[in-house]
Specification:
Blueprint (H helix, E strand, L loop, with lengths): L1 H6 L1 H38 L2 H10 L4 H14 L3 H9 L4 H14 L1 H10 L4 H33 L5 H29 L3 H22 L18 H9 L2 H20 L3 H8 L4 H17 L1 H11 L1 H18 L9 H33 L5 H27 L6 H20 L7
Helix pairs in contact: 2-9, 2-10, 4-8, 4-18, 5-8, 5-18, 6-8, 6-10, 7-8, 7-10, 8-18, 9-10, 9-14, 9-15, 12-18, 12-19, 14-17, 15-17, 16-17, 16-19
């Protein structure tokens, strides 16, 4: 066969052209995916986070309704295994994603209509928003594993760290640009609810444009690497029978619990215990995001060279001891020292967390067999979602318990749990 190829110039040229076409197709797919990531992040910034919370507060939503927003994404991740099964039975990752994410984004048009026609009925708008968030998160959970599998199949393994770091940088930039501009529009509007309606319309357009970018990505047929007659039980059994994957799931579960045991209370501690103004807290969050973005390329290149497990262990040690930092904050003798102390902490914290985010995604791609990737991504997301929600709940109760020294006790217990979570990671074998 080799001699035939060498002796036949026409066949040789066609093989070269085919290889070049594949490379061009992959390159165009990754560029389209990067644009999709930026536009999707702009959509997510507007339909979630601080803007959505402010919108609900302006409508008179109570603490339970606001809290439901934070818990819904975690709980909805339980549906990811079902989404993986459904996607594996289709013949197109692209079409499955379109069926899932297009309705999820068009649904927000209902809230836009509600703002126009039901502005004088705030309680109806609150319930409508909660319903839309619930449905949107459910649809997002059903499509999440398929999307990760699609992108994992397109990104060459030798470029995985660098590509995902670039994509995340673009997403962070989109958030840094869209969020302040959207906040400015809402704050400058004579009617904050109407102002959010204007911002929401722009967000919906961005969300639809992001789906348009996916039209330029090379499609993947899950049937090309699936066994005959796939079933959820069969996929779960095959995935969980892999000892390496089970160890990683143990790490993910403990880590998710440990992180969310304390992280939701960091800003609360600065506002209530340290008495800082909201402007300073926002500035520190910006420093965190900036450091996170600037270090992504460095971590991406290091992960391609040394692997993701070593970086996760290195960054994990720093993140594990970070809650103890808050126990030393009050030792700063002057306010200016306290502010410098907090600024440096957020820079180090953000720069380290970029390694955690990047390498956690990459190591999952590296250790999961290609035929079970979607199922494994789904299981990992479900496990992490449940453990994170449990961590937030436990942290909330302990923060109010004097027996555990309140919020200080939560920080200490979180540091211990984070250190314990790194132990299973020592035994994960990253296939390189």
């Amino acid at each position: 066969m080799i001699e035939e190829t060498l002796d036949n110039p026409t066949l040789n040229i066609s093989l070269v052209e085919s290889k070049l076409t594949t490379r061009t197709s992959i390159r165009n797919s990754l560029r389209a995916s990067t644009m999709d990531g930026g536009l999707a992040e702009a959509f997510n910034s507007i339909t979630g986070g601080v803007l959505l919370n402010k919108f609900l507060l302006d409508l008179g939503a109570n603490a339970i309704e606001i809290g439901a927003i934070a818990s819904l994404p975690m709980i909805s991740n339980l549906l990811q295994p079902l989404g993986a099964l459904l996607s594996n039975q289709t013949s197109s990752r692209h079409n499955f994603g379109l069926w899932i994410f297009l309705p999820a984004r068009l649904l927000w048009l209902l809230l836009l209509l509600g703002i126009i026609f039901c502005a004088d009925r705030p309680k109806i708008l609150v319930y409508l928003t909660l319903a839309l968030i619930s449905i949107s998160n459910i649809l997002g959970a059903l499509g999440g594993a398929s999307w990760m599998s699609w992108l994992a199949a397109l990104v060459p393994s030798r470029l995985r760290g660098r590509y995902y770091s670039v994509r995340q940088i673009v997403s962070n930039l989109a958030s840094l640009i869209s969020l302040p501009l959207a906040s400015l529009v809402v704050s400058r509007s004579s009617n904050a609810i109407a102002g959010y309606g204007i911002v929401l319309s722009v967000g919906i357009v961005a969300g639809l444009l992001s789906l348009g970018c996916q039209q330029f990505m090379k499609d993947i047929n899950p049937q090309d690497y699936q066994s005959a007659n796939p079933s959820l039980l069969k996929d779960l059994s095959a995935t969980l029978s892999d000892r390496n994957l089970r160890i990683f799931l143990i790490y993910a579960a403990i880590w998710g619990f440990a992180i969310n045991l304390s992280t939701p209370f960091f800003n609360l501690y600065m506002l209530n215990n340290l008495g800082l103004d909201i402007t300073w807290v926002t500035l520190f969050d910006t420093l965190y995001t900036g450091a996170n973005m600037l270090t992504l390329l460095v971590w991406g290149r290091l992960s391609d060279r040394f692997g993701n497990r070593y970086l996760l262990l290195f960054a994990g040690v720093i993140i594990a001891v970070s809650p103890l930092f808050w126990l030393l904050v009050n030792t700063a003798p002057l306010q200016v020292h306290l502010l410098i102390y907090l600024a440096l902490f957020h820079i180090i914290w953000g720069g380290t967390w970029s390694a955690i985010d990047l390498c956690t995604n990459n190591i999952q791609i590296g250790i999961a067999p290609i035929e079970h990737r979607a199922t494994f991504f789904a299981i990992a997301a479900a496990v992490t979602g449940v453990s994170s929600a449990f961590g937030t709940t436990v942290g909330g109760f302990l923060a109010q318990d004097a027996h555990y020294e309140g919020i200080w006790g939560v920080f200490f217990l979180s540091a211990v749990a984070r250190a314990i979570a790194l132990i299973p990671l020592l035994f994960v074998n990253e296939r390189r």
